[in-house]
TrEMBL record:
One of its GO terms (molecular function) is calcium ion binding. The keyword Secreted does not apply. This is Nucleobindin-1 isoform 1. It comes from the Eukaryota. It comes from Schistosoma japonicum (Blood fluke). Residues 270-282 have a biased composition (Polar residues). It holds the Pfam family EF-hand_7.
Length: 282
């Protein structure tokens, strides 16, 4: 009885500690898994208590990941709003000549965006087979989902976690986001990384536990994938200020002037912020 009490007490401490700071989850999750495998044997814990402990840890991980995703969404939307506000402020301050130069810059940037490579929907047959052919160096016709899963499953535990999925999708991200690009925005890159990971998990994570098991992957990869669009729409495609023309800027400026005087004046300057998104790299 004392051994069971110690196990439960230790477990309660474990789930009270933040599990996934900044998505750095695999090491912490592995430690908990190791504890749940070894401690019950040493302490002779009842199987029902062990099953309950595992369920609660999984729920804890899911809750924390949902919270992190929600927080990142809020930060990104705030960033987009600040970008628009900064653009309007510059437009209001500039002379006609400076405004013309600003619009030329937008036009050139929009043209660069239109020339970017297209990327397939995350988890689609085209995306998986392109990865197989281009990055694994294997013939497209020899595509083997079991082998691909093993390559993505970096720690070999039979499950794909959020870090492994984001690392896998980073190849797609790099097609459109280059730090050397004058229009590069790390907030957009991180936002797309999260949204693409969510789309990938939407297809394969059928039990919604933020892990994709080998069985889930192999079963769902055979299921026809219904796509609204063949290609992924990036954050740049959806919130692209570079597509803004003069009439749109004047409309935004008019709206800004109708607001209270300090609405934009007091808004934080994006270029002075020190916070940067944490982008998972391969």
């Amino acid at each position: 009885m004392i051994s069971v009490f110690l196990f439960v007490l230790t477990f309660q401490y474990i789930i009270s500690v933040p599990v996934i700071p900044n998505y750095e989850m695999p090491e912490e999750a592995a430690q908990y898994e190791k504890y749940l495998e070894e401690a019950p044997k040493a302490l002779n814990v009842d199987d029902h208590i062990l099953a309950s402990a595992k369920r609660l840890i999984k729920e804890n991980i899911v809750d924390r990941l949902k919270k992190l995703d929600s927080e990142q969404e809020t930060k990104y939307q705030k960033h987009v709003e600040e970008e628009k506000n900064n653009t309007v402020r510059r437009f209001l301050k500039h002379s006609d000549e400076e405004r013309a130069a600003m619009l030329r810059h937008f036009k050139e940037s929009a043209e660069r965006h239109r020339r970017r490579p297209k990327i397939y929907q995350p988890g689609s047959e085209d995306q998986l087979k392109e990865y197989w052919e281009k990055y694994e160096g294997l013939d497209r016709e020899s595509f083997n989902p079991r082998t691909l899963f093993a390559d993505i499953d970096l720690d070999g535990d039979g499950y794909l976690n959020v870090n492994e999925i984001e690392a896998f999708l980073q190849r797609e991200i790099e097609k459109v986001y280059n730090p050397e690009d004058p229009d590069f925005d790390p907030w957009e890159e991180k936002y797309d990384q999260i949204k693409m990971r969510q789309k990938f998990m939407e297809r394969f994570d059928t039990d919604k536990d933020y892990f994709i098991s080998r069985e889930e992957f192999l079963k769902n990869v055979k299921v026809p994938y219904v796509l609204g669009d063949h290609y992924w729409k990036t954050a740049q495609d959806v919130e692209d200020m570079f597509e803004t023309d003069e009439s749109e800027l004047r409309r935004l400026a008019s709206e800004a002037q109708s607001l209270e005087k300090d609405h934009l004046t007091d808004a934080p300057n994006l270029h002075q912020t020190t916070e940067q998104p944490n982008v998972q790299k391969t």
